[in-house]
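Bug #77: duplicate submission created two jobs. Keeping one. Sequence:
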Amino acid sequence: MLSTSKKTSSKKSVSPKKSRLESVKQKINSVSNVAKQESTVWPLENNFLLGGATIFLSSILFFIFLLIFVYNIFILYILIGNRHVMPPIYIIDRPVGEIKHLPQNIPMQQDIWQTQEVASLSEQDAGRPDVNFMASPDGSQFAYTVNRDGGVAVSLNNTVGPVFDEITFMVFSPDSKRFAYGVKTGSNQAVVLDGNLSAEYDWIFPPYFFTPDSQYFVYKIRNSGGDALMFNNTSSAYYDKIYSPFLNTDKTKLMYYSRKGNRIYQNSLLLN
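Kept job's structure:
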C-alpha cells in the first residue's frame, strides 16, 4: 500500500515540470512564427517600394527623352521652314561702329537687274543635263558645249568650233583675253589654245592653268618619250616623271620638279 501511494505522488510531482516545458516550447514556437511572418512580410514591402521607385525614375527619364525629341523636331522644323529665307543683312554706317539690322524676308526687286539674252540653245542641247558653261573673269566672254554631228564642240561667244569626240576642260586667262580647252579624238588628246589646235598626245593631265600674267598656258603631257610640261604649246625636255607645276610665293616664277633615272631636277621659268 505504501509503495503504491509513493508512485502516485511521484507522478503528480512531474506533471508541473512538463507543463512548464510545454509553455516554454509554445512561447518559442510563437516567437518563431512571428519571425517567420515578419520575414515573409518585409520582403514584399521592400519589393513594392523598389518597384515604385523604379517606375518613378522611368517616368522621369521618359519625360526627359520626350522633351529632347520635341526640341529636335522643333529645330528641324525651323531649319526646313527657313531655308528659303535670306540671311540677315547688316548695313554699317560711317563712322564704323553703328550697325543697322534690316528685317529678313526682304522682297527681291527684279527691276534693279539688267538682263539680256546672250545665247539660245537648240532643242537638242537644251535637253542635255551636261551642258558645260564657263564665263571669263571679267564677264565679257562665255563658252559652252554643244552637240554637233555625233560629237561635241565648244561655242565661244556663240561661235561654234570644230567637232571632237569629247571636251575635257575649258579655261579662261586671268585677263579674260585668252581661252583654252582640251579635246579628245579616239584615244588621242590635244589642246585648242586661242583657236589653234596643238599636236596630239597620249595623255594630257592636270593641272591646266594660265599664269597670273596670262602669258603662258600650262599643262602636262605624256607620250612614248615620257612626260613633258607644255607652256603655250611649247614643250619642255622629256622626263620619266614631272611633278605638278606651281607658282612661287611672289608669283614671279613658274616652277616644277622632274625626275629622270635616279636624278631629280628643279626647273623654273621667269614670268613678267
